[in-house]
Fold these 4 entries.
Entry 1:
Amino acid sequence: MSRAKIPQLTETTVLTQCRRRCCLCYGLDADSRIKHGQIAHLDQNPNNNKIDNLIFLCFDHHNQYDSITSQSKGLTPSEVKYYKKELFDHINAIWNITAQRPVTIDLITGLYSRNSETASAELEIILFNGNQVKVKGFALYGKTSPRGPNIGDLDFISTINNNNMIMFEDNIHTNKYSITIELFEDKIKVEEKYEPNYFAYFGAGVSFGGVLLKQNKD
Ligand SMILES: [Zn+2]
């Protein structure tokens, strides 16, 4: 079976949540030291890269978890999930993270933009309820035009899918606009589609497409 690569953002979240502690070392041996290890799939399906299905395990426990023998009762997914939760509680207590703050570290919320002399685009993405996002966008084209630039805006709510993508579409009569936003740690990649392809959803020339870089908050 071919193995889908774990998206970079998902991988970073898995590694930072546990701070490279193995939840089986902690759950079985009360050992919360940093370990060399790998990301394992709880359901043993290498293509299920949902964050709830991924755990960082030390090499020994990864091998132990993956080798299920009929003679002995192997580690069960719900047992491992239990230790994962215990480990996160332990880490949150040590790092003094308050109970109100979700365990999931939000690497997504932020302002993303690109800017040139003639055109600009920015998208603000706010993560809420785990995997839902509120997206607001503003783009300009023809910034140096004496008649003033053409404008486009976006405002929608969507969810992040398993491939770290946000999708949204809007129909005006029989015309369809759709946007796909792929999330990375420090940027987003945006693709737009128009059906029919001459359909103008924004002002002429306006686009959110391309690579938009995450802006640092000050
Ligand atoms: Zn371990």
Note: The pocket of zinc ion is lined by residues 22, 24-25, 35, 57-58, 60-61 (CB under 6 Å).
Entry 2:
Amino acid sequence: MTDCLGLSDHVSVVTGGAGLIGSSISRGLADCGATVVIADPSDAGSELADQLGDHVHHIDTDVTDPNAVELLFETTVKEFGRIDSLVNAAYPRNDQYGAKFEDVTFEGWNENVSLHLGSYFYTSKCAALKMQSQPEGGSIVNFGSIYGIEAPDFTVYDGTSMTSPVEYSAIKAGVINLTRYLASYLGSDGVRANTISPGGVFDDQNEQFVRQYEDQTPMGRMAMPEDIVGPVLFLVSDLSTFVTGQDIAVDGGWTIS
Ligand SMILES: NC(=O)c1ccc[n+]([C@@H]2O[C@H](COP(=O)([O-])OP(=O)(O)OC[C@H]3O[C@@H](n4cnc5c(N)ncnc54)[C@H](O)[C@@H]3O)[C@@H](O)[C@H]2O)c1
């Protein structure tokens, strides 16, 4: 364990902390000595907490349930004394999510927007209320996406059954501007809020898709989960004490071309 960034007294809640990106973030925070609460309903959450050591804890949480969210932050402050950062890396969606544009229903759209954008709002709100009452404030990091910044490039899905869901573009653009709102509203209380917008993360996707995606990316590859960790550590730590309301694209240059 290395206190590389002054995080040894830091308490962080990571929603979706057992996922593809979230598990790397939980590990990165734990490596820097932070107390980490993995807020994730999957069994992988408790397995990861066991693996990462005594200062990593799993709280089985469905972030789309407001009562569970309130309990998450009550428990965190009760057990660990404070909350310095919230990292929202959960990816809640219903079973219709991922349908092509023509097949998305009004109800399906509403539910997915509510599950994802709604839970990012409510976790941010509940964390902010705790952080406002601490002299040191706190830091909120929400996960956006390159598709919250610009329109999808559908040519990368040519020849595959994959698509970029229409809800995703609305949700992620919403997350980026929700985060700006939080930064503006909470800035005077010392609570910072920023977005990280990753490009596509490699997860053994269809080979044709990967090739086509890489061809569109200045750095010539998809992101690896580990690429996302450094910017998160920067945003939760005192390296970024005057950075708020920003969206950092971690995309190998995708959004500049
Ligand atoms: N993977 C990518 O290519 C990519 C690219 C850009 C942005 N993102 C964003 O990064 C974030 C993480 O994505 P990921 O790829 O790691 O997703 P993932 O599906 O691998 O992991 C998501 C995690 O969220 C958890 N989760 C799902 N529903 C939940 C709920 N109701 N309550 C609490 N936790 C819940 C899951 O158990 C899982 O551990 C998301 O916001 C996603 O939109 C991902």
Note: The pocket of nicotinamide-adenine-dinucleotide is lined by residues 15-16, 18-22, 40-42, 61-64, 89-92, 143, 145, 198, 200-201 (CB under 6 Å).
Entry 3:
Amino acid sequence: IDTIKEHNEIIHVLPKLPEHLDVTFKAKIAAQRRDDIKKNHSATHLMHFALRQVLGDHVQQKGSLVTDSHLSFDFSHFQKMTDEEIAAVEAIVNELIRKNSTLNEEQLPIEEAKKRGAMALFGEKYGDIVRLIQFDKSVELCGGTHVSATGEIGAFKITSESSIASGVRRIEAVTGRGAMDFFDKNITVIKELEQLFKVGTEKVLTSVQHLQEENKALKLQIEQYQKTAILQLKNDLKQKVVEKEGASWLLVKLDVENANQVKDLAYQLKGEVENLIFVAGADIAGKANLTIMFAQELVEKLGLHAGNIIREAAKEIQGGGGGQPFFASAGGRNPEGIQKALEKAEEMIIEKIKA
Ligand SMILES: [Zn+2]
């Protein structure tokens, strides 16, 4: 239910009309929800105070959202808060909570409230008589709902700090039951990590770091093995070069892990085989790959264009691609068509040579 104030009357707005308009209604506050909101809202006061202590007086409230599950607070500040600053704000708020400062609530003329150092909030309209809310040294003008002593808030934890506009930061935080949920969730993750790594809490971090290092080393090893395999493959391919039509032909279906390996291979062969015509097809994890490499002298002498040829040949693998005169590659959905694509490319090349 939305609640608004008009002409000093408090109005509750229902989403739809009740079925029986002639009966008496009793409005009841959802106590638990209200209680959670009170805690989150009151903590916003304490946090506002703490932010000014830690970051300085330039901190001004730019917006505030309080729900029963969390609080969100926007304020002016020009850089990302450091971990130390966040910890300092949490420490001040939690100290104020443990101090269990009682709420001091007063109605007084606005001039008098300002003399008491009360902070007026962004976007609020104030009458002549205002409500001053004080917890310890935090003094604000506020019409919201508050705990009667800060100890009720239970605990305060910042869950995120981010930028929402130039010079405006947003803090999200939890209190009371929300804070307990937050701690429980985080502790559960740590416990699961402990079980996975079979270590105590203090060793979880080093276990993850070890795993990362090991992973990095293994990746390097795999790369080394792949390089060796490609070298082996290149040497095998050089044995299969066929001389015809005044060129050194290699028309092959390759078994490789990724398209980059074919490209590497093509460039290496180009450097080592004179008058090279290299046309390769590969089935890489269910996807078809085509690669064409021509020796520069053939491109110049015969006007061969790898990009043009691959565009036609790629139709056989239901794909597309392109490239330069000497090198081109294509990808496609149909690995079954690789053989036909190779034949098509060969046909086109011979045609061009004979032209
Ligand atoms: Zn308030």
Note: Residues 31-193 form a domain with the Threonyl-tRNA Synthetase; Chain A, domain 2 fold (CATH 3.30.980.10).
Entry 4:
Amino acid sequence: MSDFFAGPRHNPSFEGLGYAHNRLDRDTEHRTEATLKDRMAHDRARFYLFDGDRLLVRVKPDRFDPLYCQKMASELGADMDRVILLGTDPVEDNAPRLAAPLLPERAAAYEEHADYQLETVRAVGLKDMLPADQLGAVAQARSLLNWHDTHQYCAKCGAKTHVALAGARRDCPSCEAVHFPRTDPVVIMLAIHRDAEGVERCLLARHTRFEDPMFSTLAGFMEQGETLEDAVRREIFEEAGVRIGAVRYLASQPWPFPSSLMLGCFAEALSTDLTLDDTELGEAHWYSREALKVMMERPVGSPEPHVPGGFSIAHWLIKEWAEADPA
Ligand SMILES: [Zn+2]
């Protein structure tokens, strides 16, 4: 066993990590065909409404309100035939939380509206428009509505499928296949090298899609039949040409664009020579903890080299390592 990740590390709280805090009780296991109707009729049922990737929020003097009762959801133009159940909210006396798309012909009314705004799920998160523990439910709703929207037909026989278990599944009446929502795992990892003297440095890269000098971790989709560890090793080698030994998982983050799960890891670099995939990476360097602490002080958007903000798991990987005691 490698002792590479041994040693004291502080306990991360990941406060502010986007979409990662979801307090709803999904209770998928106990749902029946009667559940949706029952939850929709609950007098404290509240609905999130979406136009594609955009959430409808009501602008209040002191906050944004993204939840509507059934009557209001109908009046605002919700497609009540496409409602799904997210779960129940234990903080609100187990009141049901549901989601529905807006009818396309009704969504246009909110483009320029005094009381309502359509905001992308990304903007809702980055602009801190909702409490952190509501953002997880919004991510869940956005991913699930997108999945229903793009899985109207059976992948096996092509027949029209229908919603089952209040939105937790789609069933095919023709061939009886059952279809469950997909989540696409993505590995995101901080490669760390320790030299012969015990000095550690980590690898950060500026992605070609970033205009700012923002330096972040490497990341990539997992492939079929691949372990988490092998995906980390493959991605770092493909993107930077670095060989990886041990891999340690830190934490995960739902990323609802449309349905990814970011799996944050540390990776032990066995080599330091860089061969960059220049379609993805503009530049990459090895950084000391001291250098990272300076970069972490700078805000996102700074003209000086900086790291991603606390909304992304990349930030927490960098912070956890930068603040760790290397002893
Ligand atoms: Zn079928």
Note: The radius of gyration is 22 Å.
